[in-house]
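Lecture notes, continued. The same structure-token format from the folding unit now serves as the input rather than the output. Read the line below as a description of shape only.
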């Protein structure tokens, strides 16, 4: 039985772990999540706001839902280092932040 394949697998795993840790240590950008609401809105408005936010610098993901009372809830995911434009845009669109 040869241990070379096992050593090669261990070396590859160690290299992958090292690269992953290196990316974290080198300041890979983290994402932050914020929750916002807007009352008395429509599904059309929700979709338009979602698309506009997606085009905003620093915004990585937008998850939007609307309930039976026509209140939109947005989950906004932004880069920690580039969040200012996205956070300003969502307020400009008339949303209020939900304090977590």
């Amino acid at each position: 039985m040869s241990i070379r394949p096992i050593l090669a697998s261990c070396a590859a795993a160690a290299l992958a772990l090292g690269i992953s840790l290196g990316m974290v240590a080198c300041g890979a950008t983290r994402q932050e999540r914020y929750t916002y609401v807007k009352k008395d809105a429509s599904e059309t408005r929700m979709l338009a706001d979602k698309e506009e936010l997606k085009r905003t610098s620093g915004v990585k993901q937008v998850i939007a839902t609307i309930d039976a009372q026509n209140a939109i809830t947005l989950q906004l995911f932004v880069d920690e280092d580039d969040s200012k434009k996205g956070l300003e845009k969502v307020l400009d669109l008339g949303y209020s932040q939900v304090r977590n």
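Point for the exam: The first helix runs from residue 4 to 25.
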